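Subject: for your reference before the review

Hello V.,

The reviewers asked for a structural picture of the protein, and I figured it would be easier to keep everything in one thread rather than splitting it across files. Below is the amino acid sequence we used in the manuscript, unchanged from the supplementary table.
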Amino acid sequence: MVSLDSAEKNAEFAKSLEAKHVLLSDPTGDAAQAYGVSGVGGFFAKRWTFYIDASGAIAAIDKDVKTATAGQDIARKLGELDYPKR
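And here is what came back from the structure prediction:
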């Protein structure tokens, strides 16, 4: 995940959700702009999911992320892409 919030705010957010995944802080918006997800005025990032393979290539992009089902949607897509299970 990438957020335009500060590292401190992201750490609070991750802790509140007991998140076990990495949350990248991008307060300058450079990563959001590089991936084309910078929202209007650069004040937020669009909720897109990028699936990046082991070689670093983008294998797929989900531009219709639904927060209520994101976990299940990601798991299904990873299976479709034949990503190895851990």
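For the response letter, the relevant points are probably these. The first strand starts at residue 2 and ends at 3. The beta strands are 2-3, 24-25, 49-52, 58-62.

Happy to draft the paragraph if you're swamped.

O.
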